[in-house]
Amino acid sequence: MLSVVVLISGGGSNLRALLDAAADAEFPARVVAVGTDRPEAEGLEHAEEFGVPTFEVALSSFGSREAWGDALLEQIQLWRPDLVILSGFMRLLPPAVVAALAPNLINTHPAFLPEFPGPRAVRDALEAGASESGASIIVVDNGVDTGPIIARERVAVVPGDNETTLHARIKPVERRLLIQAVLDIANGTLDLADAALSGRRAITPEESRP
């Protein structure tokens, strides 16, 4: 059974989907703890509903990002997770934290990486006039959404889209990709160490179109 710690900063819709999936006794992973950098993160309510322990490590409580990272890492390691998921976690982890958790550290992103990295991905796609955006799952490295891509899928931008409507269509894809990635990791069909070493990136049906 794969043990998972999820880090969130906001509503936790991906977390909720993962908790729902893990409620099935045959799902090969369990969320053992949920952490946040914001005590007001709405997603903590999902963890509480499912009886999953939570922890908070706020950056404002520390004198440096490195000290914050050390405290965050200590909280994560208390749970001895096999996998850590950044899901709407809006802080860049210090290199020491990435090094300690890698390669078993993945991130969800609402764009078809390497297009539109960063925290404004949906808005950036619209402002660029893109006809497509997407969702991606990556292995975390020290860059901003620059790690090896393990899954991604296109989502069309439709006339009249705004940030809210486009993001609403991306989220279900992001959730599905995340749950499948966790399944693949738990079942051994996706090796994160191999992905990190090879810089592997997923080839999707969209990319293989003639």
Automatic annotation (TrEMBL):
A family per Pfam: Formyl_trans_N
Annotated residues for binding of N(1)-(5-phospho-beta-D-ribosyl)glycinamide: G12, S13, N14
Gene3D superfamilies registered for this protein in UniProt: Formyl transferase, N-terminal domain
Catalytic activity, per the record? N(1)-(5-phospho-beta-D-ribosyl)glycinamide + (6R)-10-formyltetrahydrofolate = N(2)-formyl-N(1)-(5-phospho-beta-D-ribosyl)glycinamide + (6S)-5,6,7,8-tetrahydrofolate + H(+)
InterPro entries from the UniProt entry: Formyl_transf_N, Formyl_transf_N_sf, GART
For this protein, what is the EC number?
Answer: 2.1.2.2
GO MF term list = phosphoribosylglycinamide formyltransferase activity
Transferase listed as a keyword: yes
- Residues where (6R)-10-formyltetrahydrofolate binds: R65, M90, R91, L92, L93, N107
Q: Which residues form the active site?
A: H109 (proton donor)
Protein family:
Belongs to the GART family.
Q: What is the protein's name according to its record? A: Phosphoribosylglycinamide formyltransferase
> What gene is it encoded by?
purN
